[in-house]
């Protein structure tokens, strides 16, 4: 039986969602009905709401890709992935496939989990499923784009997974200082004539920028590398500085450079599901931090286009 509820609904691609009454179908035998406690506006959530993201194709559209809630039949508090759910979590209730629901660790803050899990997935999946590392051998990480939410989280994820040294680069000086508090060992301020020498010897690059910035960094680091036979695993995650990159062919011939991508397709949903319990545990045990602004879902239309300096989390 369909259930009436309140939800944020996008009726026109690119327009802010409006808060209105809708009905939610009964869950199928493979789904759980979840009462939503918290769901965040991630970058992918905004992208889907424009209608330009590959995973959003039909109107009306209820935003959101994940969240925290309670299973209505058991009262258990859970984290859930809703990327492929029929409706999004910017609503009072949602039906989610049982395989995409994960028990929340004791002591977890629902709003913080909702804010951090999506940005944490990118660096976690890169380090766990895309690169080759051994926790028995010290390794170092360079976060290119360390001042955004995902980049700041990547610093914390890298440390939680045993990185001995984490170098980070970004333009926002204040955010770089915050990154140092969160565990960043060396900060590189991006500018017109940036030196990437401090990152030349790292083992892994988590790249949230791509474009001309990544091209400059890549060439500079490879030239400065003491041992060019030592593998440099470069993981492309985001493209804040451009969709395309120009790279001299010599960069690939003259060094042991591995170019990889990280996202759905580069890893499978089964791999993601397997990693979720440990990521949730690490988020709580390591005390990962993020500035969170909690808002009531009924205010979604006025809050939607707020600056993204802090992660906005909606509570129905």
What does this entry look like structurally?
The chain has 316 residues and is of the alpha/beta class. Helices cover 28% and strands 26% of the residues. It contains eight helices and 15 strands. Strands 3, 4, 5, 6, 7, 14 and 15 form a seven-stranded mixed beta sheet that branches. Strands 10-9-8-11-12-13 form a six-stranded parallel beta sheet, covered by helices on one side. Helix 2 packs across helix 3 and helix 2 packs across helix 7. The mean pLDDT is 93.
The CA-CA distance between the termini, in Å, is 22 Å
SSE string: EEEHEEEEHEHEHEEHEHEHEHE
Estimate the mean pLDDT confidence: 93
SS elements, strand count: 15
Low-pLDDT segments, ≥5 res: none
Tell me the strand percentage band: 25-35%
How does the helix and strand content classify structurally? alpha/beta
> Looking at the structure, what is the overall shape?
elongated
Helicity level: 25-40%
State the major sheet. 7 strands, mixed
- The number of helices is 8
What is the CA-based Rg, rounded? 20 Å
List keywords for this structure.
seven-stranded mixed beta sheet; six-stranded parallel beta sheet; alpha/beta; 316 residues
Q: How is this fold's topology laid out?
A:
Elements: E1 3-9, E2 18-24, E3 31-40, H1 43-49, E4 66-71, E5 77-81, E6 93-97, E7 101-103, H2 110-130, E8 140-144, H3 149-160, E9 165-170, H4 173-181, E10 186-189, E11 204-207, H5 211-224, E12 232-236, H6 249-253, E13 257-261, H7 269-285, E14 292-296, H8 300-303, E15 311-315
Parallel strand pairs: 8-9, 8-11, 9-10, 11-12, 12-13, 14-15
Antiparallel strand pairs: 1-2, 3-4, 3-6, 3-15, 4-5, 5-7
